[in-house]
Amino acid sequence: MILLTALPRTGKSTAIQKIIQMLGIKNCGGFFTEEIREDDERVGFMIKTLSGKKALLSHVDIKSEYRISKYGVDLAIFEKICLEELKNAIIDENIKYIIIDEIGPMQLFSEEYKRLLIKLLKSKKQVIGTIFMNQYEWLDDFKKKDGIELIEITFDNRDQLPLQIVEKVTKHDENMQRKINKARRYTMEIERFIPMNDGIEVHSEHGIRTIKIINGNYLCDCDFYRENGTCSHIMAVINSNTQTLTKTKTENSRINKK
User: Which residue segment(s) compose the domain that 113 sits in?
Assistant: First the structure.
Protein backbone atom coordinates (compact mmCIF):
# COMPACT_ATOMS: atom_id res chain seq x y z
CA MET A 1 0.00 0.00 0.00
CA ILE A 2 1.48 3.31 -1.11
CA LEU A 3 0.18 6.27 0.86
CA LEU A 4 0.88 9.88 -0.08
CA THR A 5 1.00 12.40 2.72
CA ALA A 6 1.55 16.13 2.71
CA LEU A 7 0.98 19.43 4.39
CA PRO A 8 -2.33 21.14 3.49
CA ARG A 9 -2.47 22.74 0.03
CA THR A 10 0.56 20.82 -1.20
CA GLY A 11 -1.36 18.79 -3.78
CA LYS A 12 -2.30 15.34 -2.41
CA SER A 13 -5.64 15.09 -4.19
CA THR A 14 -4.22 16.58 -7.39
CA ALA A 15 -1.44 13.99 -7.38
CA ILE A 16 -3.82 11.08 -6.81
CA GLN A 17 -6.09 12.22 -9.65
CA LYS A 18 -3.10 12.44 -12.00
CA ILE A 19 -2.13 8.91 -10.98
CA ILE A 20 -5.65 7.66 -11.75
CA GLN A 21 -5.53 9.15 -15.25
CA MET A 22 -2.06 7.74 -15.90
CA LEU A 23 -3.07 4.26 -14.77
CA GLY A 24 -6.35 4.48 -16.68
CA ILE A 25 -9.61 5.10 -14.90
CA LYS A 26 -11.10 1.83 -16.16
CA ASN A 27 -8.30 -0.04 -14.35
CA CYS A 28 -8.97 1.67 -11.01
CA GLY A 29 -11.60 1.31 -8.30
CA GLY A 30 -12.11 3.35 -5.18
CA PHE A 31 -12.89 6.96 -4.39
CA PHE A 32 -11.46 10.45 -4.10
CA THR A 33 -12.55 13.67 -2.44
CA GLU A 34 -12.97 17.17 -3.80
CA GLU A 35 -13.28 20.46 -1.97
CA ILE A 36 -16.51 22.44 -2.15
CA ARG A 37 -15.82 26.16 -2.22
CA GLU A 38 -18.15 29.14 -2.02
CA ASP A 39 -16.85 32.69 -2.44
CA ASP A 40 -13.32 31.26 -2.35
CA GLU A 41 -13.94 29.68 1.05
CA ARG A 42 -13.93 25.94 1.66
CA VAL A 43 -17.30 24.84 3.01
CA GLY A 44 -17.18 21.08 2.62
CA PHE A 45 -16.04 17.97 0.76
CA MET A 46 -17.61 15.87 -1.96
CA ILE A 47 -16.81 12.17 -2.42
CA LYS A 48 -16.65 10.69 -5.91
CA THR A 49 -16.24 7.01 -6.70
CA LEU A 50 -14.44 5.74 -9.78
CA SER A 51 -17.60 3.88 -10.77
CA GLY A 52 -19.37 7.23 -11.15
CA LYS A 53 -21.21 7.84 -7.87
CA LYS A 54 -20.91 11.04 -5.86
CA ALA A 55 -22.25 12.39 -2.59
CA LEU A 56 -21.69 15.01 0.06
CA LEU A 57 -19.21 13.79 2.69
CA SER A 58 -19.09 16.87 4.90
CA HIS A 59 -20.34 20.44 4.98
CA VAL A 60 -20.61 23.38 7.33
CA ASP A 61 -24.41 23.10 7.08
CA ILE A 62 -24.63 19.37 7.90
CA LYS A 63 -26.04 18.71 11.37
CA SER A 64 -24.32 15.58 12.63
CA GLU A 65 -22.95 14.03 15.79
CA TYR A 66 -19.77 13.43 13.80
CA ARG A 67 -17.87 16.68 13.46
CA ILE A 68 -14.38 17.76 12.45
CA SER A 69 -13.75 21.45 13.07
CA LYS A 70 -16.64 23.37 11.45
CA TYR A 71 -17.75 20.45 9.28
CA GLY A 72 -20.55 18.01 9.96
CA VAL A 73 -19.78 14.54 8.52
CA ASP A 74 -22.37 12.31 6.86
CA LEU A 75 -20.95 9.00 8.05
CA ALA A 76 -23.86 6.94 6.74
CA ILE A 77 -23.42 8.11 3.16
CA PHE A 78 -19.66 7.58 3.36
CA GLU A 79 -20.10 3.99 4.50
CA LYS A 80 -22.83 3.29 1.97
CA ILE A 81 -20.98 4.61 -1.07
CA CYS A 82 -17.24 4.38 -0.38
CA LEU A 83 -17.08 1.12 1.52
CA GLU A 84 -19.24 -0.58 -1.10
CA GLU A 85 -16.92 0.78 -3.79
CA LEU A 86 -13.82 -0.57 -2.05
CA LYS A 87 -15.37 -3.99 -1.44
CA ASN A 88 -16.35 -4.25 -5.10
CA ALA A 89 -12.86 -3.17 -6.18
CA ILE A 90 -11.30 -5.98 -4.16
CA ILE A 91 -13.28 -8.70 -5.97
CA ASP A 92 -13.63 -7.16 -9.45
CA GLU A 93 -11.10 -8.90 -11.71
CA ASN A 94 -11.04 -5.91 -14.09
CA ILE A 95 -9.78 -3.60 -11.34
CA LYS A 96 -5.98 -3.61 -11.04
CA TYR A 97 -5.52 -0.67 -8.68
CA ILE A 98 -7.47 0.47 -5.62
CA ILE A 99 -7.56 4.20 -4.93
CA ILE A 100 -8.27 5.69 -1.49
CA ASP A 101 -8.44 9.47 -1.07
CA GLU A 102 -8.29 9.76 1.81
CA ILE A 103 -7.51 8.17 5.18
CA GLY A 104 -8.17 10.99 7.59
CA PRO A 105 -10.15 12.12 10.64
CA MET A 106 -13.48 12.43 8.81
CA GLN A 107 -13.34 8.90 7.43
CA LEU A 108 -12.03 7.36 10.65
CA PHE A 109 -15.33 7.84 12.42
CA SER A 110 -16.16 4.57 10.62
CA GLU A 111 -14.99 1.44 12.44
CA GLU A 112 -15.87 -0.62 9.38
CA TYR A 113 -13.57 1.57 7.28
CA LYS A 114 -10.70 0.87 9.68
CA ARG A 115 -11.30 -2.88 9.41
CA LEU A 116 -11.41 -2.65 5.64
CA LEU A 117 -8.10 -0.75 5.53
CA ILE A 118 -6.46 -3.57 7.49
CA LYS A 119 -7.94 -6.06 5.03
CA LEU A 120 -6.58 -4.06 2.09
CA LEU A 121 -3.07 -4.41 3.49
CA LYS A 122 -3.33 -8.10 2.58
CA SER A 123 -4.80 -7.48 -0.88
CA LYS A 124 -2.85 -8.72 -3.89
CA LYS A 125 -3.91 -5.57 -5.74
CA GLN A 126 -1.91 -2.37 -5.64
CA VAL A 127 -3.46 0.15 -3.25
CA ILE A 128 -2.61 3.83 -3.66
CA GLY A 129 -4.03 6.44 -1.34
CA THR A 130 -3.58 9.62 0.64
CA ILE A 131 -3.32 9.86 4.39
CA PHE A 132 -3.56 12.61 7.01
CA MET A 133 -0.05 13.85 7.78
CA ASN A 134 -0.31 14.97 11.40
CA GLN A 135 -0.42 12.75 14.44
CA TYR A 136 -3.85 11.26 15.05
CA GLU A 137 -5.25 8.42 17.11
CA TRP A 138 -5.27 5.05 15.28
CA LEU A 139 -3.51 6.57 12.26
CA ASP A 140 -0.15 6.73 14.02
CA ASP A 141 -0.13 2.95 14.53
CA PHE A 142 -1.58 2.24 11.08
CA LYS A 143 1.24 4.15 9.35
CA LYS A 144 3.78 1.82 11.00
CA LYS A 145 2.22 -1.42 9.77
CA ASP A 146 4.10 -3.77 7.46
CA GLY A 147 3.20 -3.30 3.83
CA ILE A 148 2.78 0.47 3.99
CA GLU A 149 5.08 2.82 2.11
CA LEU A 150 4.67 6.47 3.11
CA ILE A 151 5.70 9.07 0.56
CA GLU A 152 5.65 12.77 1.37
CA ILE A 153 4.57 15.21 -1.33
CA THR A 154 6.46 18.49 -1.36
CA PHE A 155 6.40 21.53 -3.61
CA ASP A 156 9.67 20.27 -5.10
CA ASN A 157 8.56 16.74 -6.03
CA ARG A 158 4.80 17.04 -6.63
CA ASP A 159 5.04 17.50 -10.42
CA GLN A 160 7.28 14.45 -11.00
CA LEU A 161 5.80 12.20 -8.31
CA PRO A 162 2.65 10.92 -10.10
CA LEU A 163 4.62 9.34 -12.95
CA GLN A 164 7.14 7.94 -10.44
CA ILE A 165 4.31 6.27 -8.52
CA VAL A 166 2.85 4.84 -11.74
CA GLU A 167 6.26 3.46 -12.64
CA LYS A 168 6.58 1.87 -9.20
CA VAL A 169 3.17 0.14 -9.19
CA THR A 170 3.53 -1.15 -12.78
CA LYS A 171 7.13 -2.36 -12.46
CA HIS A 172 6.16 -5.91 -13.54
CA ASP A 173 4.22 -4.71 -16.60
CA GLU A 174 6.69 -4.45 -19.49
CA ASN A 175 4.22 -2.67 -21.78
CA MET A 176 3.52 0.02 -19.20
CA GLN A 177 7.23 0.44 -18.46
CA ARG A 178 7.90 1.07 -22.15
CA LYS A 179 5.07 3.61 -22.29
CA ILE A 180 6.37 5.37 -19.17
CA ASN A 181 9.86 5.66 -20.67
CA LYS A 182 8.39 7.06 -23.87
CA ALA A 183 6.28 9.54 -21.89
CA ARG A 184 9.38 10.78 -20.10
CA ARG A 185 11.14 11.30 -23.41
CA TYR A 186 8.17 13.17 -24.86
CA THR A 187 8.03 15.35 -21.76
CA MET A 188 11.54 16.59 -22.51
CA GLU A 189 10.49 17.54 -26.05
CA ILE A 190 7.88 20.22 -25.42
CA GLU A 191 7.62 21.02 -29.13
CA ARG A 192 5.68 17.75 -29.54
CA PHE A 193 2.65 19.29 -27.74
CA ILE A 194 0.29 21.64 -29.59
CA PRO A 195 -2.55 22.96 -27.40
CA MET A 196 -5.94 23.22 -29.14
CA ASN A 197 -9.28 24.65 -28.07
CA ASP A 198 -10.69 21.22 -27.21
CA GLY A 199 -7.53 19.36 -26.20
CA ILE A 200 -3.87 18.82 -26.96
CA GLU A 201 -2.24 17.48 -30.10
CA VAL A 202 0.73 15.20 -29.50
CA HIS A 203 3.24 14.68 -32.30
CA SER A 204 4.40 11.17 -31.44
CA GLU A 205 6.97 9.03 -33.25
CA HIS A 206 4.10 7.12 -34.89
CA GLY A 207 1.96 10.06 -35.95
CA ILE A 208 -0.26 12.79 -34.54
CA ARG A 209 -2.44 11.86 -31.56
CA THR A 210 -5.23 13.97 -30.11
CA ILE A 211 -5.80 14.15 -26.35
CA LYS A 212 -9.18 15.44 -25.20
CA ILE A 213 -10.06 16.29 -21.62
CA ILE A 214 -13.74 15.68 -20.88
CA ASN A 215 -15.06 16.16 -17.34
CA GLY A 216 -11.51 15.86 -16.05
CA ASN A 217 -10.87 12.57 -17.89
CA TYR A 218 -8.10 12.26 -20.49
CA LEU A 219 -9.01 10.48 -23.73
CA CYS A 220 -6.65 9.56 -26.59
CA ASP A 221 -7.36 8.32 -30.12
CA CYS A 222 -4.45 5.83 -30.16
CA ASP A 223 -4.89 2.04 -30.24
CA PHE A 224 -3.04 1.43 -26.96
CA TYR A 225 -5.44 3.75 -25.13
CA ARG A 226 -8.49 2.00 -26.59
CA GLU A 227 -7.17 -1.32 -25.31
CA ASN A 228 -5.66 -0.27 -21.99
CA GLY A 229 -7.36 2.96 -20.89
CA THR A 230 -4.08 4.86 -20.80
CA CYS A 231 -1.08 5.50 -23.05
CA SER A 232 2.27 7.27 -23.28
CA HIS A 233 0.59 10.32 -24.83
CA ILE A 234 -1.73 10.85 -21.87
CA MET A 235 1.08 10.25 -19.38
CA ALA A 236 3.30 12.71 -21.22
CA VAL A 237 0.62 15.40 -21.35
CA ILE A 238 -0.11 15.08 -17.64
CA ASN A 239 3.59 14.96 -16.78
CA SER A 240 4.22 18.04 -18.91
CA ASN A 241 1.59 20.05 -17.00
CA THR A 242 -1.41 20.80 -19.22
CA GLN A 243 -1.98 24.12 -17.47
CA THR A 244 1.42 25.32 -18.68
CA LEU A 245 0.63 24.12 -22.20
CA THR A 246 -2.75 25.87 -22.21
CA LYS A 247 -1.21 29.07 -20.86
CA THR A 248 1.42 28.96 -23.60
CA LYS A 249 -1.29 28.61 -26.26
CA THR A 250 -3.23 31.56 -24.83
CA GLU A 251 -0.14 33.76 -24.72
CA ASN A 252 0.82 32.80 -28.28
CA SER A 253 -2.74 33.59 -29.44
CA ARG A 254 -2.56 37.06 -27.90
CA ILE A 255 0.79 37.71 -29.57
CA ASN A 256 -0.54 36.58 -32.97
CA LYS A 257 -3.58 38.88 -32.65
CA LYS A 258 -1.28 41.84 -32.06
Answer: 2-169
